[in-house]
Amino acid sequence: MVSSSTHTLTLISPPDDVNTVHALLETVWADAAHVSPTDRFSFETALIELASNVLRHADTGCGVTCGLRLEVSEDRIDGRLNDTGAMVTELLLATDRPVDLSVDADVALAGVLATREMPDVLCESGRGMALIHALVDELDYVRDNDVNHWHIVRTLRS
Amino acid sequence: MQFTVTDQGDGIAVVHIAGRLNMVTAPRLREVVAASVAAGQNRVAVDLSDVDFIDFSGLGALIGGLKATRQAGGDLRIAAPNEQVRLVLQLINMERVLTAYPAASSAFHG
Predict the structure, then answer these.
(1) Which residue among A32, A124, B34, B87 is least enclosed by CB atoms within 10 Å?
(2) CATH code at A133?
(3) What sequence ranges are listed for the domain STAS (chain B) (predicted)?
């Protein structure tokens, strides 16, 4: 029987960056010997991609403060990232995917999140959401009171 | 993150990277490849044997380097990626574009 472990982090950028998230993950994996390398690599890649996108696109010049909570249980890894950055439409535009901004942002995001298509192989950017989708089983987004709430879950395969 | 560039002659440069290749360090890789191409070394072998982790910023830098070297008549090849790097390459069907060689020193020979 594997007991659950929970890890939290407050990330203030600048000066924090994605390496701060990597450092937290090192402590997470140290407590989670039952997580296979494939599950570990997959979740870490998805989380770092999410954090990178938030840090890159949500900062409107005042920096970004993120709260990160990771929970590892017997059969899944659950990550919640909350940030005070800009509305997610900036992130949507950053996906290089056409987004109809005349519709509600949550509706527009739902359309993007539902898409798993990868951009052209030689495209240097714009794969973020598609990559995260391919690596986790759940990807949810809600904006509430000027805070973006991201939630990703990977079910452990082995 | 450390970058070491070795001139192998015949227009070949080996770029050895140690650490994580992410949004923090990817710009440095772009600079290193651009400098190699500018110096006439348009065949670049990127040694990933000591790269612990790569994200899409890092992959973007590799793809940018691939374009830059090919535009100069050369190529960019990667060597010795770990399991995480191979996983990401597989996810985006990049393996057929960025073929992994066993060792950087032989990426353009044999």
Answers:
(1) B34
(2) 3.30.565.10
(3) 2-110
Q: How far apart are CA A28 and CA A154, in angstroms?
A: 15
pTM of the model: 0.79
Positive or negative torsion for Cα A11, A14, A17, A20: negative
- The domain total for chain A is 1
**For residue A58, what are the domain limits?**
5-155
* C-alpha to C-alpha distance for A76 and B36, rounded to whole angstroms: 44
Q: Are strands B75-79 and B2-9 parallel, antiparallel or unpaired?
A: unpaired
So what CATH class is B2-106?
Answer: alpha beta
Every domain of chain B and the residues it spans: 2-106
Nearest to B22 among A41, A52, A121 (CB): A52
Rounded to the nearest 10 degrees, the angle between the axes of helix A128-135 and helix A105-113 is: 60
What is the value of ipTM here, to two decimals? Answer: 0.78
